[in-house]
Predict the structure.
Amino acid sequence: MNTVISFLEASIVAGTPLLFATLGELICEKVGNLNLGVEGMMLMGAVIGFMVGINTQSAMAAMMAAMVAGASGALIYAFLTISLRANQVVSGLTLTMFGTGFSSFIGKSLVGQVAPDAIKNFFKPIFLPVLGHIPFLGEILFRQDVFVYVGYITAILLGIYMYKTSQGLNLKAIGENPKCADAAGINITLYKYIHVLLAGALCGLGGAYLSLVYVPAWQENVTAGRGWIAVALVIFVSWNPYKALIGSYVFGGLDIIGFRLQGSSIHISQYLIDMLPYIITIVVMVVVSMKKSSKNSPPKALSVPYFREER
Amino acid sequence: MIRISSIVFALLLVAIFIALLGLNPMGVYSSMLKGAFGSAYSIRETIIKAIPLAITALGISVAFKMQFWNIGGEGQIIMGAFLSSYFALRFPELNSFLLLSIMALAGIIGGAIWAYIPAILKCKYGTNETIVTLMMNYIALKFITYLQYGPWKDPNAQGFPKISNFSENAILPDVFGINIGWIITIVLIIFMYIFMNYTKKGYEIAVLGESEKTALYAGINIKSTIVISMLLSGGLCGLAGMIQASAVSNTLSVQVSGGIGYTAIIVAWLSNLSSPLILMVSILFAALLEGGSFIQTAFGIPESVASIIQASILFFVLGSEFFIKYKLVKNNTSTLKEVA
Amino acid sequence: MEKNIPYIQVEDITKAFGKVIANNNVNLTVYGGEIHSLLGENGAGKSTLVNMLSGVYTPDSGSIYIHGKKINFTSPKDAINSGIGMIYQHFKLVDNMSAEENMIIGQNTGIFVNKKKIRNKLFDICSKYGIDIDLKKKICNMSVGEKQIVEILKVLYRGADILILDEPTTVFTPQEAEKLFNIMFKMKENGCAIIFISHKMDEVMKVSDRITILRKGETIETVNKYETSPEKLAELMVGKQVNLSIKRSKIDMGEEIIKVNNLTVKNEEAIEVIKGVTFNIHRGEVLGIAGIAGSGQKEICEAITGIQAIEQGEIIFQGENIVGKTPREIIKKGVSMSFVPEDRLGMGLVGAMDMVDNLLLKSYHNEKGVLLNKKPTAKRAKEIKENLSILTPDIHYPIKNLSGGNIQKILLGRELDSNPNLLIMAYPVRGLDINTCYTIYNLIDDERKKGVAILYIGEDLDALMQLCDRILVICDGKITGELKASEATKEKIGLLMGGKSEEREESSVV
């Protein structure tokens, strides 16, 4: 039983960077922009967060810096695709290319270094009173570090925002039918910029979690493709932040299962097990495409740039 | 004109960045040029780098013409390399011509199979090909890692996880000092040009790419067209993989594709899916890469700078599309008008 | 009609898109309590003008005054705030949301939505104007008429006293159009100013107080309804006298070419969209199908041509059942289909390609071998361009840049070129200028004389009655009635379109 609990606990930790990236890409797509630069933004956040963390010893400064880094990457993409109406797919791919190169470059001097103790302590697991005592669930959910709790809260806040507020309704309108939203008087450009930048900040945070808490050190390509899994996860959870919570943690579990099985009596090569998250993503995609319904569809105007004066 | 000025802008921006590093931008740029074209050796190296890029970009452009977003070039290269490596390692003593032909065929088949899977999923279930092909990249990569650390590990490598080198018979011969891949590339460019513009299949792919409904209306068999063009797409990538494994690395490793699958997408897009342009752009990108590795040794600038430069140029080209399509007209209020 | 300060005053407005001048020194005055129609052909500039009134476009020069105040709209929000409510031809509604939710978007109602307040306000408006609709229903589940009402409600909710309706009745039955007109009259009584855009002259004559005609981007004249007639209006629209009659040659109909027997078709969601449809067409006969858009017309066309899978039934073409055959096999049999969907370039043609490549679309596979020889087709392209007076810089010019009329001519040119036995046309004159319309009607009559069987799906009931020999009316996937052209009236057709069934006689061979 204890192994199950510890596995689930660890799954949440592993899934947290995925959660932030997924939530980010989710709101980005909801506003109609497909950003394939998630991997790049995560890496930018990871390296800048780590660098600031090493130099300032402050966790807060590091997180802030990571968010700014991710948002900066997103800004390039946003400017290109929103104001200059560039092709979203290529712009996103280029952002990933840029982010990878950028983080590799900046990180050159940081390779091998470990997160400073001050930060490590900040992210030590915190045992929540009362909640942490709930048998089974409490042990898994409420003995985590601050970042994980921020993850819970962010997902819930996003859910409330999207489904209960009028701004959330406007958001949905933009992604579904921008002409209609425009005719209704919504400032599409403003909404797009805000949400794309916010998405970048969240992705940057996700990346920083990897370099500051999860590993916790800087390695080249520390994200190892998680950004891409996040893009798939958004579809998997049907653009729903609540489902994103569950989906991210499930995939977090898949991520670590290879390592966990090593010590057990199951003798499969770690590398084959490493394939699992990707295979499962494909299976998920196939299943989702088999049962198409309007609840599970993407925003209708996804990846189409909006131009009011178009005849 | 606008495209060129955008590239110039990008270079300027990166020059500033380089200057901030305390280096002379002109010096760096001229070194890059020297590194790419300065000597017979560097020209050869540039062409060697351009070969897999061009072939892969050709493969990607077939898929893209059909609006099938094949992001899986990377994986298809790897699997092509894998299948051909199987034969290279299994029959090292076979007659070279025979062995290489088998390896080429295996490379094509390997890549084709890897592309067939997302194609059939799209046909049967309508599954989003962007994600599937992407995931297939990672699966392919992990598979090679598995082989490299496991069943195919070279016992003679003193515990270092690598796969054994190919025998002489399995290495592509050189022509004019460059592996024969360059001839293959030119042949393929011509072939693909004719295929896309003058054959029935090429016509069908173009129609399908424009609108599925129009393809149906014209009586085109959509499923078979998707499958055939993806087999072609993957096959080309797989061939590139075989060339890389055989001629460049002389073995199979996780680095066999080295990001070419992704760069090729950008090459294909920049070339507007046109075969002759693909050749030119591939050489350009290869020059950037080659120049990049040169300055790494010359100036200690890490290779990642090459991708930063590439990405910056791309950002500017992407942005400049806007100014080509729309003219900014100032009136009482400044508005944008579409250039008729 | 109050002759005070006009609600709308447009003075010398000019607007260009690139090289195309859409509005050239346009003038317009509309008062409160007036229904003012804007009449003109497609491309005359009507939509451009009203888009400037609603804040979507900004004028290049000239002035607009609303309620006497000069305005400078930079976005739709400004127009909404000035009391202008625009109801678009293509609905600006979010399908995935309910009617209620569509009311809320864009409003600054604070962070959380107060549904009760909104419902009350909506209820008041509905009672005032006699509107009856279920607000909780999702837009995607609504009929066209209901969607139209939601649009009107949206505009009234935002406090509009100026309404602009852009071709609102395009997809209505005559009865639904009546309902709309009644709401419009009520608004007029309440002092609203209404701009009504249409190209249907009978409607314009029915509802307007005054009419302004636009031609090629310029205001030609503003007339009083009682001082004009459809013929005079047509002449003003086109610039010269127009013969508004459609030729129908008297010929002997031949044998039956195609018989559709008990056809049933299911759509992607496994819902029956065609329910047991039976009809036939003879050589030299024009059979029309009338119905509200989406009643199954499209599916009938696609079923006959093999594009749509069939659940049950037979389609017997020249003695042979073609159910289950692929489109290619059917094309070979001479079922030439000129199918014009709403998105003209979405099915029949490839926009990015030139005329030659488009002409190849159905015949390319006939050539032997792998390569394409485009020379003979290029020659044919030049001939067709001559015959149909197609305006294009070159046969190698991408067709998506051409005007709607010319694109349509290319499509028709290709389809007629293959000398079909059966010609299926869906909305072939939609969105075309009057001259091209009548050119096409004449082409159809020529084909009739050649002995071709023609299936014609159209929305202009007058044209249907003049052009066709028989008219089938379809509603909700079923044929509700069949009328000989000589017996048909718009009222009869309208009722059948709305669902009232009639006894049918089997049409026998002449």
